[in-house]
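Reopening closed ticket. The problem is back. First fold of the pair:
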Amino acid sequence: MSAHQLPLSIVAAEKRETRTQFAALPFRVVDGSVQVLLVTSRRSRRWILPKGWPEPGLTPAQCAAKEAWEEAGVLGAAYELCLGVYAFEKERDGGPDLPVLAFVYPIKVQQTKQTYPEACSRRRKWVPLRKAAKMVDAQALARILKTFDPRVLKGHTV
């Protein structure tokens, strides 16, 4: 395990046990204003952050960056700093919803691509932080968005 990996279980012991995902907070600064990139979920079409399951050999920030590429088509610098955690219920076909804790990692976007793996199944939208906070359902995520300041990233590793 590297110094940047959290000791989190990848496999849940029971079907209803809380799972872990890593969420990307893709951001950019335009004319001094911070904007974040939200995507729609595939099923409900709600506005969310790109997120996915832990993967062996990848740090949480690397997992978040991989999801930012696959779900939002952005490439950038992933910071090894967890901005916060929020809880949600993940809908499943033919089974009960899964309780999930999402750990949020900032990604400073350097490139936005038009063609990316999930381009046909998601919408994406750049929005100011306060507007993004109003667009998401999870209140803990809204608080993370409202309080995000890229200046906290100074001195943290990419």
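Second fold of the pair, where the issue appears:
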Amino acid sequence: MIHWHRLFGLTLTDFFRNSAQVELVAGAPGIFDVQWGIRIIRMIVLSRITKSEKNAPWLMFSAEADKVTYGAAAYRWNSPVSSIINKLFEQYQKEGVVMAYTLEDFQKEVKEEVLESLTKEY
């Protein structure tokens, strides 16, 4: 199984590592605009946004269980819930909401998967 949200976070962490300090322009709680070259990038810090219906889609991907639960309950779907979202919630229910996931965690997980695949009998 690929934890795409973890890999996405690790990629962004690497991308912005050692970058020049930039000015964050605060908007609503947890919302910041950043000038990056000629573009303005809107950053949404999920741990800081408020629980509100307009933030429900973002809250479903928070690392805080109560925000995930709120987001799932508050979001009004325009179409039937996809199997991808169902898989996400199933994973949350199995593992709980995982907090920090580091590059070291990823490397350890990959090593374990490789070792497991090598020890299987066919």
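Update: turned out to be a display glitch only; the data is intact. The longest strand covers residues 31-36. The radius of gyration is 18 Å. Please close again.
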